[in-house]
Design brief:
This protein has helices at about 1-30, 55-65, 85-90, 110-115, 140-145, 170-190, 220-230, 250-270, 275-295, 295-310, 315-335, 345-365, and strands at about 45-50, 75-80, 100, 125-130, 135, 150-160, 200-205, 230-245. By secondary structure, the protein is α/β, with parallel strands linked by helices.
């Protein structure tokens, strides 16, 4: 049991802290990246896949149309994936020849993106979620990297907030997670390149963009194709977007379980990218950032069970057992009582447990052969 405890502790330390420390150290040893000059391709396509986004689609289109294209021609392709709330109708109220609205039916996000890509004629495709509002300067910040022929895709930065007056809840904790995750992406960019994109905003050369496999995480599948084709992904912190996240535990759990299941399928479909002989630093980064992180639930369970078995074999094991029990008790109390999540330590604990339980459930869905194809955005009260 002592071996299980310490092996689990070491793996978890590496996943949560060690990888980041080693990555930051190695990235600082690399030469500083050259300054990137403003540059835009002749034409840019925005691709927005939406399912029942009537509440935000008008704001999204106004936001997109208001971005400075820096002289590039812009087209916007909106794909309504069988929306039943008037999403497509609202999008069509925009009397602008730059906007194309497609309704292929309820096919799932992967197929919706594939249908949209067939109508994207730009040199670069910018993918962005319907509820993600882009900050001024985002488009220029994304596009200038494509002046480098080695760059295949660019990932943007996401800021997450809780909804309504609940900014100290799950939104606060998820915001901390994204701050950490994007600090890793910035360091990864200086080594093998950012591991993958996040769906809120990212851009890819049109020649590299292809319909993702159904049942997989579309942003991961689309963005890592740049790496498989010998190009690099870079993280651009000046390409910024803000999303409001739900405080509904059940809705967030469903989203994360689906994401975990699809994430495992996506990672295994691209397992060859973890070959260091072919992909160098990127292979280590993908292994550490994605594979090891997805194994955390297993090692958290092993750590807890082995710790309980070791109680009575020294004050350290007793102290650790009390600490773990207290942490999980705090987390479950906060998940049960939303008001309690305004206490930030409780919010962090609840987010941690929610995320890892969802990862575990998603893994069992994956190995059991269950495949999530359709998607429903997470919303407050759902």
């Amino acid at each position: 049991m002592a071996y299980i405890f310490w092996i689990s502790a070491i793996v978890l330390f590496y996943s949560f802290v060690g990888y980041g420390l080693v990555l930051l150290m190695l990235s600082r040893l690399r030469p500083k990246p050259k300054a990137v000059k403003d540059w835009v391709p002749p034409k840019v396509s925005f691709l927005i896949a939406a399912y029942n986004e009537a509440a935000v689609i008008a704001d999204k289109l106004n936001n997109t149309l208001g971005l400075d294209p820096h002289g590039a021609e812009v087209e916007i392709v909106v794909v309504s994936d069988g929306s039943s709330d008037g999403t497509a109708e609202i999008a069509r109220t925009f009397d602008d020849p730059r906007i194309t609205v497609l309704e292929p039916g309820r096919l799932g996000k992967a197929a919706a993106l594939g249908a949209g890509l067939e109508h994207c004629t730009g040199d670069v495709v910018v993918f962005s979620d319907a509820n993600a509002m882009l900050a001024d300067g985002t488009l220029i910040a994304l596009l200038r990297h494509f002046a480098d022929p080695d760059v295949g895709g660019v990932c943007g930065q996401i800021t997450v907030e809780g909804s309504g007056e609940k900014k100290g809840g799950l939104g606060f904790s998820e915001g901390l997670f994204w701050n950490y995750d994007q600090a890793l992406k910035l360091a990864e960019t200086r080594l093998g390149g950012a591991v993958s994109a996040q769906g809120s905003v990212y851009a890819l050369r049109r020649s590299l963009a292809a319909e993702p496999k159904a049942g997989c995480t579309d942003d991961f599948m689309i963005s890592v194709r740049a790496v498989s084709e010998g190009r690099r992904l870079v993280f651009e912190p000046q390409a910024r977007t803000t999303e409001i996240v739900t405080e509904s535990v059940s809705s967030e759990m469903r989203r994360r379980v689906r994401s975990s299941e699809r994430g495992w399928r996506s990672l295994m479909a691209n397992a060859a990218l973890m070959n260091p002989l072919k992909h160098g630093w990127y292979a280590w980064q993908l292994f550490s950032h994605k594979l090891v992180r997805r194994l955390n639930p297993l090692f958290l369970i092993l750590l807890f069970v082995s710790n309980l078995a070791l109680v009575g074999q020294g004050w350290f094991y007793g102290f650790m057992a009390v600490g773990q029990i207290a942490f999980y008790a705090l987390a479950f109390a906060a998940l049960a009582k939303p008001a309690f999540r305004q206490f930030k330590p409780a919010s962090i604990a609840s987010f941690f447990v929610l995320a890892h339980v969802a990862m575990a459930v998603g893994f069992f869905r994956y190995i059991s052969g269950r495949t999530s194809v359709l998607w429903t955005p997470s919303r407050e009260g759902v």
